[in-house]
Recover the amino acids of this structure.
């Protein structure tokens, strides 16, 4: 019976059915649910790794040993894993190896909009791209077949709208692929220059064979219709194009690297005008141009952000494609003359422990190098307490670099903030650098005891593994001390006075220091304490707005300041900052 | 009933995802091809969220395009206004009357529009429901999503039993009774 599955759930099901034995990942939107769902199946070893590089190394080892293995990550995670990625292409595999990478066109939850298809081209690794959940499952299984047939890792490229869309999937049975025999082969698995040179030759040969495969692969298919316009598209972009031009001819690509050049040439000859509809970069378009084929693409469809049905339809209309083969429903949209609609940016949740930290950092007017997580929201008004956010772990190195560049001028004015999971992912190396190179940076580890933004995944310092089983709990204090930080202290970010005192002391110290701001995420079920909501005494409230400066979504100000009882988490931070003691706990009400 | 497109809009944390799952399951058991596009990650933290649900004989794009929505189910009034351009001519907006001011309004940078009801009702077919009030009556203000589903269900051609089954299977066990009542109240609300 068909099931309505997320693209990510379908990839997990595909991995299960393909007989995957080992899976590893670091959480990252929009890829997280793949690994969470793999963890629900029996017969697969699965882990949250500290970062994507480790995850890929774990599964590469598993594949070399003869098991089918899979690593999952978001696009920027593949940057972290790029080092093993490139060389895994040289070693090839033994048991099948698939790397799932989820791009985020539109940057719904990401710091950049990179196009991971280029990794396939650069590393000579084939790339498959599904358009819906059924394909996500089928392509996952096919990826393992290709991997073993051609002795190569395979990239399965997802995008947010395929990962996070539900569509129908027909489940199947798990294959019993067993474990292949491992044979020691230093010419294949030890990549030092003499051996790597030989493998480099293999790489080029393999890619030729993969291109031949791509020509005949059933997942690259032509759908002839009206031939005045022919559209080449893959993945999510195919869906939009198909809807925008139901009457046009299509070459739907399931394999986007290596591209089937002959198939493309044949298709181009049969249609009057050729279009490429693809999100982000001109990956397919540029390649077709190198074949000497006239093709239209980004002059009609934007490079920036996600595509949609109406964007593609408008582009094709602008290109002069006859309206008979287009779906122009967007012309029927309702026009509303509305006054200015205020935006609704995301915000730190009511009860979020980070709010206390940012309140103090703002008060002390510090320069704050930030990092990747929920806490990046502290950059937005009214907290406005972050100066930089680049990539996982960058906060510490950046703070150190600023201090070294500015010298005495910067002394006591810069702090780095980084989440607990992010610190383990790639902050620790930055901290080693600070100590080793005589920095004086103060690092605040925002320890909310979970991986918050991606939906509460365990990590090495939570004391649990992905299956929820007890695991060794990494001791962050000891870890920081072990790398040579002498000033390590743990503080409660809701104890504002003490927290401020701690920050003042540590930024004035002439050596590296770490403050672990420890309080569990307000949404974390196992730590959630049920505090009663607070209320505002309107008789004494003077409307000064100090509480509003906390940016708490539960506090509103329309004619008078009030607290939304259902949203309030009862953290009491607003009461702590109120100068007239007009905010109190609901159960203290007279 | 073919090719139906529904946009579910609200504020992150209001339970839009649950309602899209229920709706998707109902359409699936009704024998349709279904696509549901969800929002995960940063936007869930109190931001404006939109979930797309489409069903019909064959659905390609998981996104409801501008001018394609038959219904917009809004959990919050400002969000109804924000997305109304996605409605097709003749489409209907079903909106909760609750107002949740976004941070720029709370901080006094911008005003919460006062005339949303008039703008909507003068432009499109509108059904305003005090879903938060009804949900609270049923025992939990969090059941807003199911109240609104009830209102929507009355306007779609699926058997009521399919809805009850999908809700029972989707909501947390201990809230089944509250949600059943919430659905009933929404379903039986004769308005708009």
């Amino acid at each position: 019976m068909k099931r309505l599955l997320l693209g990510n759930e379908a990839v997990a099901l595909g991995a299960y059915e393909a007989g995957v034995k080992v899976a590893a990942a670091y959480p990252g939107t929009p890829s997280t649910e793949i690994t969470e769902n793999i963890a629900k199946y029996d017969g697969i070893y699965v882990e949250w790794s500290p970062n994507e590089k480790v995850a890929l190394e774990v599964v590469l080892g598993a594949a070399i040993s003869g098991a089918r293995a899979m690593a999952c990550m978001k696009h920027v995670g593949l940057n972290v894993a790029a080092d093993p990625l490139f060389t895994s292409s040289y070693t090839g595999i033994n048991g099948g190896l698939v790397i799932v990478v989820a791009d985020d066109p539109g940057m719904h939850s990401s710091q950049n909009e990179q196009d991971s298809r280029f990794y396939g081209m650069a590393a000579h690794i084939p790339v498959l791209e599904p358009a819906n959940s059924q394909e996500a499952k089928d392509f996952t299984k096919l990826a393992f077949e290709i991997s073993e047939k051609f002795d190569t890792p395979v990239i399965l490229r997802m995008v947010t709208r395929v990962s996070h869309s539900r569509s129908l999937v027909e489940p199947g049975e798990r294959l019993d692929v067993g474990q292949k025999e491992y044979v020691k082969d230093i010419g294949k698995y030890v990549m030092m220059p003499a051996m790597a040179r030989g493998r480099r030759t293999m790489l080029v040969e393999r890619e030729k064979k993969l291109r031949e495969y791509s020509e005949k692969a059933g997942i690259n298919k032509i759908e002839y219709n009206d031939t005045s316009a022919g559209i080449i598209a893959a993945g999510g972009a195919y869906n939009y194009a198909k809807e925008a031009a139901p009457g046009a001819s299509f070459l739907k690509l399931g394999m986007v690297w290596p591209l089937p050049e002959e198939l493309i040439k044949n298709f181009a000859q049969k249609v009057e005008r050729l279009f490429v509809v693809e999100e982000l970069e001109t990956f397919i378009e540029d390649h077709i141009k190198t074949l000497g084929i006239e093709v239209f693409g980004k002059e009609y469809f934007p490079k920036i952000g996600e595509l949609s049905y109406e964007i593609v339809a408008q582009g094709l209309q602008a290109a002069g494609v006859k309206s008979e083969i287009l779906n122009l429903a967007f012309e029927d949209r309702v026009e509303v003359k509305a006054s200015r609609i205020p935006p609704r940016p995301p915000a730190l949740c009511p009860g979020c422990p980070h709010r206390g930290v940012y309140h103090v950092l703002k008060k002390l007017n510090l320069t704050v190098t930030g990092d990747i997580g929920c806490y990046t929201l502290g950059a937005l008004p009214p907290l406005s307490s972050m100066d930089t956010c680049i990539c996982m772990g960058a906060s510490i190195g950046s703070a150190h670099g600023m201090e070294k560049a500015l010298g005495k001028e910067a002394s006591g004015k810069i702090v780095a903030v980084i989440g607990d999971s992010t610190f383990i992912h790639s902050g620790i190396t930055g901290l080693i650098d600070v100590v080793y190179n005589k920095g004086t940076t103060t690092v605040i580890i925002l320890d909310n005891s979970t991986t918050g933004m991606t939906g509460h995944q365990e990590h090495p310092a939570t004391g649990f593994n992905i299956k929820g089983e007890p695991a060794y709990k990494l001791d962050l204090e000891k870890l920081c001390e072990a790398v040579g930080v002498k000033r390590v202290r743990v503080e409660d970010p809701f104890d504002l006075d003490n927290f401020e005192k701690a920050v003042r002391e540590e930024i004035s110290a002439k050596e590296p220091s770490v403050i672990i701001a420890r309080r569990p995420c307000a949404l974390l079920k196992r730590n959630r304490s049920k505090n009663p909501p607070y209320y505002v005494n309107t008789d004494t409230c003077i409307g000064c707005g100090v509480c509003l400066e906390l940016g708490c979504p539960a506090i509103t100000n329309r004619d008078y300041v009030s607290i939304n009882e259902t949203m309030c988490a009862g953290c009491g931070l607003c009461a702590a900052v109120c100068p007239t003691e007009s905010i109190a706990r609901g159960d203290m009400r007279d | 009933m073919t090719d139906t497109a529904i946009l579910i809009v609200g504020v992150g944390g209001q339970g839009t995802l649950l309602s899209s799952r229920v709706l998707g399951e109902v359409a699936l058991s009704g024998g349709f091809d279904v696509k549901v596009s969800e929002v995960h990650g940063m936007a869930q933290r109190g931001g404006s969220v939109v979930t797309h649900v489409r069903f019909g004989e064959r659905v390609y794009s998981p996104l409801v395009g501008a001018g394609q929505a038959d219904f917009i189910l809004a959990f919050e009034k400002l969000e109804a206004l924000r997305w109304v351009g996605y409605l097709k001519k003749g489409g209907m907006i079903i909106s909760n009357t609750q107002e949740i001011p976004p941070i720029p309004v709370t901080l006094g940078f911008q005003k919460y529009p006062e005339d949303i009801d008039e703008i909507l009702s003068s432009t499109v077919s509108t059904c305003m429901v005090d879903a938060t009030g009804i949900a609270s009556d049923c025992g939990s203000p969090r059941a807003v999503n199911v109240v609104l589903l009830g209102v929507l269900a009355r306007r779609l051609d699926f058997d009521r039993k399919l809805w009850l089954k999908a809700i029972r299977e989707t909501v947390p066990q201990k809230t089944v009774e509250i949600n059943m009542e919430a659905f009933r109240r929404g379903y039986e609300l004769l308005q708009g």
Summary: Chain A touches chain B through 64 residues (CB under 8 Å). Chain A has a mean pLDDT of 96. The longest strand of chain A covers residues 226-234.
